[in-house]
Amino acid sequence: MASPAARLLRSPLVPASVLVASVFMSSARLAADDGALPSSSVRPGRSASGEKLPIYPTPEHNPAITLVETHNPLVPYITQSRESVSNVLGDARTYVQSGVSKWITFERNVEREVKSVLPPDEALNPGLIYVLVAGLSGSVLSRTRSLPVRFLAPPLFTLLAFPYFLPKTSHNVRKYLSNLEDKHFPEFAARHDHFVQTGVAHWGMLWGRIEDATEDAREWGHRAVEGVERTTGLRLGEAVSKVEKEKERLVEQERQRAVAVPAQKYETVGYVVEQKPVAEIVAPMEPPKEKKLV
């Protein structure tokens, strides 16, 4: 059985305009009861009640977020490993830097010692070559001698030639070795100094005796000359004195000439070239042909 509303709608007596008006009024009444305006009256940026909407979200719309920190079980092990590696690398770097510093200090000490030994006004070349040649000469000269002589001759010749060809360098070397001996071996240095002083004293005594013997020989020679003069009547003393005076005069003249005459300077004015054959070029020769009479 149909409802009264359905019957009313199907009734031809009710016009369509009345039906539409009744539906619109009922919807407007429902919207007014809910407290909202129709959708056609809401402007952009405002709410349905007409209030201006905020630009940024409010705390009411953003609830608080709580972060829960969860530790990784590998973090302590990684931290300990990193600290251990850092300590090892730091120790290695410190050790390397210490070694480099020690090496630089050693180089500077060696350079300073070498500069203190080598004099700036005395060249090593060719004096050092002469010293080495003297050592080799000792080895050559003693090649047919006994083993101790062959063993001691080269260093002995080298030590004797070193102060002769390089006097300042040898003096500095002796001084440097003496300082090292006094610094590291004081007892041995004291004995060495005592031995050297004793040797110097004995050498002075020996040299004094040689001078005394020379003076005695000279006096004996004068007495012998006087005896010969008394015996034979020859004037040997005058001849000897004249020879000695002539020698002294010649020596004095040479000394004065060396002082008065300046050193002669030379300049290169030309070159002498000697031409020598370098090679000989030969070629085969053909035998002469005999002429035949026709």
TrEMBL record:
Keyword field: Membrane, Mitochondrion, Mitochondrion inner membrane
GO cellular component terms attached to this protein's record: MICOS complex; mitochondrial crista junction
Endoplasmic reticulum is among the record's keywords: no
Region Disordered, residue ranges: 35-57
Protein's GO biological process: cristae formation
Top-level lineage group: Eukaryota
Coarse class of the protein's main subcellular location: mitochondrion
Pfam family, one: ApoO
Matches recorded under InterPro entries: MIC26/MIC27, Mic26_fungi
Role, per record: Component of the MICOS complex, a large protein complex of the mitochondrial inner membrane that plays crucial roles in the maintenance of crista junctions, inner membrane architecture, and formation of contact sites to the outer membrane.
Assembly information from the UniProt record: Component of the mitochondrial contact site and cristae organizing system (MICOS) complex.
Designated name of the protein: MICOS complex subunit
Taxonomic path: Eukaryota, Fungi, Dikarya, Basidiomycota, Agaricomycotina
